[in-house]
Amino acid sequence: VRELLEKVLRKYPESLDAHSLLFELLVETGTADEVEKARDRLPSAADDRSDIWLSKGVWAEKQGQLKSAARCFWEALRRDPNTSRTNYHLSHALADLGMTEQAIPFADRANRLTKLSLQINVNILKLNVDTIRSIVEQLEFLGRDWEAAGWCQLVLLETGTLPDWAGSTQQRLHRTLMSSETYTTTAKNPAYQLDLSQFPLPEQRTPATPSLPLASSINKDSSVAFRDEAIKTGLQFTYRNGASPNDLESMYEMNGGGVVVLDYDGYHWPAVFFTQ
Fold it and tell me: What mean pLDDT is reported for the chain?
């Protein structure tokens, strides 16, 4: 993927999509020097891209620049408040900075966005009026009035009639849509209710961590073999991906799963704990 993106950028050096994807990839898998070089190559127009600000924030977070990370996530949400991942990152950055109260609206928005996405994806092939009404209410709460109005119109297309709630919602939204200049109502974007402009932007250069030489005692001719004995030892764990309608309250994909191995009870046998 990286080679393909580099190829695209050689031919189209101003492609913001390619810059964004490559920058995100390097933040996740590249070295500090590679990330810094990719950031230096970003065109000035990249400042208008929320996804690039998100990647800058993730990188700053990895470097321990917590205030800079929060600033980047905030900049991203001012441009696009409808990415659950960015809201989630900012809520945690603010909480880690001791700004718990300011973190709450972003945590709530991340949760609502995730539930909305799952609600649509799970029910897209079996929509009914009640489901659409719930979706409309969530969209209006999030300030996504254009979409809310569109879903109201979908009720008419699906059923041939417009319920009272859908008609009144359309009338109410029509007044705001005619004067709206943004995709999401500014008043419903928590990033506009908080000013983090005083927080510093990420430092431009972070020294690369030198690679450590391999220990001379390693036997290069030795081999390592693994045997799958999970079931035999009683390790039977299934990681759920959160897409089930019964799991909408949890955001499994945000942090992923994990495992802890420790002698919890002091009996000199390792206990294994798997997380969802």
Answer: 85
